[in-house]
Amino acid sequence: MEFQAQDAIQWIGLTNEKIQANKEYLTSLDQVIGDSDHGINMSRGFQEAVNKISGESYDTASDVLKDVAMTLMSKVGGASGPLFGTLFLKLSTTFKGNDPVDYATFTSGLEEALSGVMQRGKATKGEKTLVDVWAPVVEHFKQENAFQADKILEVAKTAMENTKDLMATKGRAAYFKEKSIGHIDPGSASSYYIFEALAEAEGGY
Amino acid sequence: MKKIINDPNQVVQDMVKGMIAAYPNDLRQIPGTMAIVRSDAPVKNKVGLVSGGGSGHEPAHAGYVGKGMLDAAVAGEVFTSPTPDQLLEAIKAVDSGSGVFLIIKNYTGDVLNFEMAAELAEAEGIQVESVIVNDDVAVEDSDATTGRRGIAGTVLVHKIAGAMAEEGGTLEEVKAAAEKVVANIRSIGMALTPCTVPAAGKPSFELEENEMEIGIGIHGESGIERKQVATADDIATELTDKILADMEFTSGDEVAVMINGLGATPEMELYIVNSKVQDILAEKDIHVHKTFFGEYMTALEMTGCSVSLLKLDDELKSLLDAQSRPVAFRS
Fold first, then answer.
1. Is B149 within 8 Å of A37 when comparing Cβ atoms?
2. Are B80 and A82 in contact (CB < 8 Å)?
3. Chosen from B33, B146, B302 to mutate, greatest number of chain A CBs within 10 A
4. What backbone phi and psi angles, to 5 degrees, belong to A71?
């Protein structure tokens, strides 16, 4: 794996396309167990992130992801702004000084991102949050030695679908208790698009 | 969706512009942000108070910016917390060197964004303290949830912390006063109809003609119990009973009452609710020191109301009675 500035730009661009295409779907997920703004906020944030990075020139993936993180934090709002912002900020920090980013560094970046977001959101696994997608994906990265697009896609998709059966105990959905069972967590769905985009960008899907 | 707006994505910008135009002597906007600041901020030797939250709760939060209450309020997108960078700008704009106090409602997004802003401000050498308001008795407090939501009772936290700051209280004293309010205030809301977030274009939940929801939050999220629409007296009784069951009240206690409309309920109906609430309190020999009546924290055009009770002592009474001059809270 040789992840560079161009790859990061492509990754975020593809993520944005998926978020834009599924904006209403994400909002409908949030309508059931949240306050129905997840799709609106994520589409605004990722569109701004793409606008920002397409207007600049970058030497490293770390610099790209730093701008993405800051844009998400300042444009998304709600809980998703700080949480998705933290994920990309941790990736950026871990990638700093490592260019191109190799598989091991990418893996530690994802690990740092996961632990950062868990700390920020005071969340653990099984609470029906984006952690339930990020944790198994990180686990997969740690088990392998090289990037495997099809496996990442599979792990992320299964993890997202598994959030359906969970009862939310963190975040806005926690107020819905038992009523939250049977619905995919919106933050997990967005996280799936992020990994689907990564699989496409890096795996040539 | 039928609304008096220009562009669903510009409602907050357009609103803030109009608000500044309405009160040019009282308020100013920090350029490039949706932060509204007291025109004379930072006030020398005074702790700065910053609050905020999603838009759609008007007059919360910018309506409470002014002498005796907030120094700044930051408006997020509709029902969406403001972002850390804008909160930071507000904190910097109101810090006179005496520190800044943040009033945060217990919603995950609000807590996360305010926490990040506090960390950023501290990194810049500003002393920051905060309180998290969780007055909604509809949501049970347990290890399994993120705790109770902060709703209309937050306005009285603004009022009392604001009075303490205006009287020259230190950052610690402002925090102590705010914490005392949080410990003694309880609220609960109900709705007859949902509301429509402009960018979503359709109602946040559906209610049949004969249904109501008890325990709704202020973001249009559905409540804890859906039932047949009852009379105003029954609604008032249910809300008041849930509050009285949650906090110990004894004969002779003094309270402040807040009857809050959610955006589309006529005053007539709110007065009917108030009448019953006051009767229930009188029956229990709970003395009403002051009643706050009207729209304090709305949820766009949701029809419904919330009731809040604040148990008072001499300190809280005097801070509650202190003069304040925000555009939406003259006392």
1. no
2. no
3. B146
4. -65, -45
Give me the long-range contacts of A149-152 (CB less than 8 A, separation at least 24). Answer: A149/A199, A149/A200, A149/A202, A149/A203, A149/A204, A149/A205, A150/A199, A150/A203, A152/A195, A152/A198, A152/A199, A152/A203
Q: Does B23 touch chain A (CB under 8 A)?
A: no
Q: What residues in A contact B55, CB-CB < 8 Å?
A: none
In the residue annotation, B287 being an active-site residue is answered as: no
Q: Is B61 designated active site? A: no
CB contact under 8 A, A35 and B76: no
Q: Which long-range contacts (CB under 8 A, 24 or more apart) does B203-210 make?
A: B204/A31, B204/A35, B204/A36, B205/A31
Across the interface, whether the CB atoms of A170 and B146 are under 8 A apart is answered yes
Q: B209: exposed, middle or buried (C-beta count within 10 Å: 0-12, 13-18, 19+)? A: exposed
Distance CA A6, CA B184 (A): 56
Q: Out of B83, B144, B217, name the one closest to residue A81 (CB).
A: B83
Extract the tokens encoding B242: 């849930």
Tell me if B161 sits within 8 A of B103, measured CB to CB: yes
Residue from B33, B57, B74, B80 to probe the interface with A (highest A Cβ count within 10 Å): B80
Q: Would you call B220 and A36 a contact, using CB atoms and an 8 Å cutoff?
A: yes
Q: Looking at chain B, which residue has its C-alpha nearest residue A86?
A: B116
Give the residue among A143, A189, A144, A135 at the shortest CA–CA distance from A163: A189
Per DSSP bridges, beta strands B48-55 and B35-38 are: unpaired
Burial class (CB in 10 A: 0-12, 13-18, 19+), B21: exposed
Flag if A75 and B82 touch (Cβ within 8 Å).
Answer: no
On whether any CB of chain A is under 8 Å from the CB of B123, the answer is no
CB of A174 within 8 Å of a chain B CB? The answer is: yes
ipTM exceeding cut-off 0.85 for this assembly: no
pTM: 0.88
Q: Is A133's Cβ below 8 Å from some Cβ in B?
A: no
Sequential pLDDT tens for chain B (331 residues):
999 999 998 999 999 999 999 999 999 999 999 999 999 999 999 999 999 999 999 999 999 999 999 999 999 999 989 999 999 999 999 999 999 999 999 988 899 999 999 989 998 999 999 999 999 998 765 443 467 889 999 999 999 999 999 999 999 999 999 999 999 999 999 999 999 999 888 888 888 999 999 998 887 666 778 999 999 999 999 999 999 999 999 999 999 999 999 999 999 999 999 999 999 999 999 999 999 999 999 999 999 999 999 999 999 999 999 999 999 998 8
| Sheet with B303-311, side-by-side order of all strands | B225-228, B211-214, B185-193, B303-311, B254-261, B287-294
Which of A88, A96, A99, A93 lies closest to A3 in space, CA to CA? A99
Q: Among residues B158, B219, B287, B289, which one is catalytic?
A: B219
Residue B292 and residue B257 in contact, taking contact as beta carbons nearer than 8 Å: yes
